[in-house]
Amino acid sequence: MNLILAGRRALGRCGAGIKQCEGDGVTPRGTWPARRVLYRADKLAKPQTALPIAAIAPGDGWCDAPDDPAYNTQVTLPFPAGHERLWRDDDLYDLVVVLGFNDDPVVPGAGSAIFLHVARPDFGPTEGCVAFALSDLLAIVARLSPGDTVTITP
């Protein structure tokens, strides 16, 4: 199944387009495989999904340092290179769908951590992900299965 994202959502601060580099604020336009789901078990019951699923732990991060061999992969903190924390205080990563952007193969600097995640209350822009209300994201996660893709349009 190819899921075309519709409805109220937040995109990167520079909108959806062709991603040029790490940190450019662009949500990559295109069709990407849905890889797996991550969630905060201390805040949510295990979501229904056919995708591989794992609970996020306080020591989980994602490497965003283009010069590191772990670039664009989940890492364990503390981690010496640039990274973002998956265990956040702002609820944005309480539920995450990891998209297969720049992961097969990973190209250093081409962009990392493109997720579907929970939106801010005001639906403010993301750093390059796509964010939804938690209820909408739970519905999306419930529809996804291995082999499914997600299409991001402007």
Please describe what this structure looks like.
With 154 residues, the protein is mainly β. Helix content is 6%, strand content 30%. It is built from 1 helix and 12 strands. The chain has one helix at residues 134-143; strands at 2-4, 16-17, 27-28, 30-39, 53-55, 60-63, 74-76, 83-85, 95-99, 115-118, 130-132, 149-152. The strands form 3 sheets. Strands 1, 4, 5, 9, 10, 11 and 12 form a 7-stranded mixed β-sheet that branches. It is globular and about 35 Å long. The chain starts with a strand and ends with a strand. 35% of the residues are buried. The model has no long low-confidence stretch (mean pLDDT 97).
Rg estimate, integer Å: 14 Å
Terminal CA distance: 20 Å
Helix content range of the residues, please?
A: under 10%
Largest sheet report: 7 strands, mixed
Question: Can you count the beta strands?
Answer: 12
Strand residue content: 25-35%
Mean pLDDT: 97
> What overall geometry do the principal axes of the alpha carbons give?
globular
The helix/strand series, from N terminus to C terminus, equals EEEEEEEEEEEHE
Low-confidence runs: none
Class from helix and strand fractions: mainly beta
Number of helices: 1
